[in-house]
Write a structure and sequence with these properties.
Strand content: 5-15%
Number of domains: 3
Distance between the termini: 43 Å
Order of helices and strands: EHEHHEHEHHHHEHHEHHHEHEH
CATH topology of the largest domain: Rossmann fold
Strand order of the largest sheet: 2-1-3-4
Mean pLDDT: 90
């Protein structure tokens, strides 16, 4: 069995650690590129949202490398993510690919449904498999810790690209770690490297939160490395949604950090949205409310036609009006271009700079729409 899975941010490091610990032969798809997008767009329904199309591209590229089994997540509720696996399976069958698809999703009736799928995948001992999950969690937490520091330092570095180079080398080394001790040592070493990078001490900066649908928030190819663009514009990015947070909330019920951050966001969204709309719709609204006094603006990003985020967008307008918080919504699909996105980010951040540092009071501009 040669397994693969779709890219989403740095998940390839985590997935590889877990599934190799399960005794599986893991084939990580090539990083997402224009070729990946073109393949997925060519063979997917036009109306499908962007993550599904790129997933198809990942699978096709992995199949060329010998993958015969796909491990894919599933979901419940109105979000179309719950249908991804079935649609993707049919697309691959129509193209003549004989690939098994194992869907890990919340059970319909009993936890045994998940248990049976895990047992089907395991080719190793329970001890080794559990150790791989334990190691993967610590890798995830370490990656997210250093990435948070990256967001803080990026707008202040004197030589653009230094902190990103350090972080990229860190990802290579953390992927090689085989024990928790190695993970901790690697994290400490790279935190030390970041601490001595030359910085502008008095450069004025603003803080902007990025919220929205998890895939478009975490996958840099899809959002055109939005965080890097903002960093070059002198913006410190605050992202409430990280992979470790998602794992802690959805797989371990908040046990790993002692709290469930998505639960807090959902509670804060209740005065605007008090029912489940699928995906991360409620969290998007809740995080905007939660951060209203901690950031200078909010950017929502989502796939074009994403229903949960469309609902959230309509309510973010009210959040913006109530709290005087500039909010911009960006939808992405295969037609989105980096130049247009960069122009919108420049205009949005320029407006926030003028609002924050100008002596004259200016009307708050709320940028909403595609």
């Amino acid at each position: 069995m040669k397994v693969t899975f779709p890219h989403m941010g740095h998940f390839h490091i985590i997935g590889k650690t877990i599934f190799e610990g399960f005794g599986l032969d893991v084939i990580v798809p090539p990083p997402c590129t224009k070729k990946t997008l073109n393949l997925g767009t060519k063979y997917s329904p036009e109306s499908a949202c962007l993550p599904l199309k790129i997933n198809i591209g990942n699978y096709l590229e992995a199949a060329e490398l010998g993958a015969d089994t796909i491990i894919m997540g599933g979901g419940v509720g109105p979000c179309r993510f719950g249908y991804y696996a079935e649609v993707q399976r049919e697309i691959l069958e129509d193209l003549g690919y004989d690939m098994d698809m194992v869907i890990l999703e919340p059970p319909d009736v009993h936890l045994r449904e998940v248990w049976d799928k895990v047992k089907y995948l395991m080719r190793s001992t329970w001890t080794r498999s559990l150790k791989s999950i334990y190691l993967a969690w610590h890798k995830t937490h370490a990656i997210d810790q250093l990435e948070m520091e990256l967001h803080r330092l990026r707008p202040m570095e004197t030589n653009t690209g230094n902190v990103d180079n350090i972080f990229n080398h860190f990802l290579i080394d953390i992927d090689k770690c085989n024990t928790k001790a190695q993970v901790v040592k690697t994290l400490n070493n790279y935190q030390g490297e970041l601490s001595v990078v030359s910085m502008h001490k008095d450069r004025p900066s603003i803080k902007v939160a990025i919220v929205g649908e998890i895939y478009t928030v975490l996958e840099p190819f899809v959002n055109f490395d939005m965080e890097k663009i903002l960093g070059k514009l002198g913006v410190e990015v605050y992202r409430p949604l990280f992979l470790s947070q998602w794992i802690n909330d959805h797989l371990f019920g908040g046990l790993l950090s002692g709290k469930k951050s998505s639960k807090i966001a959902k509670q804060l969204s209740e005065s605007y949205l008090n029912y489940f709309v699928g995906g991360h719709g409620r969290e998007t609204v809740g995080h905007a409310v939660e951060l209203k006094d901690k950031v200078d603006g909010v950017i929502q990003i989502a796939p074009l036609t994403c229903m949960p985020e469309i609902v959230a967008q309509s309510l973010l307008l009210k959040v913006s009006e109530d709290w005087g918080l500039p909010i911009m919504t960006i939808y992405v699909d295969e037609q989105t271009g980096k130049a247009g996105l960069t122009t919108r980010l420049e205009a949005f951040t320029d407006m926030i700079y003028r609002k924050k540092f100008s002596d004259t009071k200016e009307e708050i501009i709320i940028c909403m729409g595609i």
